[in-house]
Design goal:
four-stranded antiparallel β-sheet; Immunoglobulin-like; alpha+beta; 4 helices; five-stranded mixed β-sheet; elongated
Length: about 290
């Protein structure tokens, strides 16, 4: 019975493991978001650096020579329950009405502006519900650009959707990550953020992790139980084979009966002294001799 239960638990673990792998994303380097920046998200989608730097993990930092290129990755996620399409591009810097840093829209970008230094592969992407992907892009610095620091926006824009209340209005949402590009003849390597735990930005992901570890624990216990049962069965089979090859007759000890007990029991009676022969008997014998 125990063996059957152990086999059932092992089968349950294997079924749960494969189903979890098939219908859920397991955290890894390709589909993970650093915990230091996992709170950067909007209503429906998010974009974060795939490999954040140690200095400012919430933005991209580059040091590039004029006329050279560098490759980087961003991590995009669709947090909604519906499929959605997005456009990825570089945005030229500008100033807002309050004098703060802002970025131009895709239509406002200059063909030779800083935003044109960013080339995504691909430029448009469609993500399913709760789906995430790592998308590469290239930073190409023109040869004629002057030395210095430049700001560029890494934009993720959701395709415009018609307003249900007013069909003449199209609503578009956009997220932008800041990127700083230092153009220099002596570029230094940007240190990466180390020791960061990774997590998936998706609804209901915690229970899948707990389910996995519970299933793994049950599998280990079931596996140990199978090993113990197998060892016990081998011991029993060896004992049975040994008895079959060399049969032994069990000798039962005889319990003493009442008769034997009486025989062995020492007598407590005293031996009576031999009776003396009477004188009359002696006389009769002597008389017989004379005759």
């Amino acid at each position: 019975m125990i063996k059957k239960i152990s086999l059932f638990l092992v089968g349950l673990f294997l079924l749960s493991f494969f189903s979890t792998s098939a219908f859920a994303q397991i955290p890894n380097l390709d589909t993970s978001v650093p915990s230091a920046i996992s709170d950067i998200e909007s209503d429906g989608f998010t974009i974060v650096p795939a490999f954040p730097n140690a200095k400012e993990p919430r933005k991209f930092l580059f040091e590039v020579k004029p006329g050279e290129k560098t490759k980087e990755y961003t991590y995009v996620s669709n947090l909604s329950n519906n499929e959605a399409s997005f456009r990825l591009y570089g945005a030229d810097p500008t100033q807002s009405a309050q004098g703060t840093l802002a970025y131009k829209t895709r239509d406002q970008n200059s063909p030779t502006g800083e935003g044109s230094w960013i080339q995504f592969e691909p430029e448009t992407i469609t993500l399913g519900p709760k789906e995430s992907k790592k998308v590469p892009f290239t930073v190409s610095v023109p040869e004629t650009v002057e030395m210095g620091e430049y700001k560029i926006g890494i934009a993720m824009e959701k395709f415009a959707v018609q307003d249900t209340n007013n069909p003449n209005i199209a609503i578009a949402a956009r997220l932008i990550l800041n990127a700083e590009v230092k153009v220099t003849d002596d570029p230094q390597e940007i240190p990466r953020l180390k020791g960061q735990k990774t997590t998936i930005i998706q609804d209901g992901g915690d229970w899948k992790i707990y389910y996995f570890w519970i299933s793994l624990s049950l599998f280990i216990l079931s596996f140990l139980a199978l090993i113990w049962i197998t060892i016990q069965e081998k011991k029993d089979s060896r004992q049975q084979s040994a008895i079959a090859k060399h049969p032994t007759v069990a000798v039962k000890k005889k319990t003493p009966t009442k008769k034997t007990a009486a025989r062995k029991k020492p007598s407590t009676k005293k031996k009576s002294a031999p009776k003396k022969k009477t004188a009359t008997k002696k006389k009769s014998t002597s008389a017989r001799k004379k005759k």
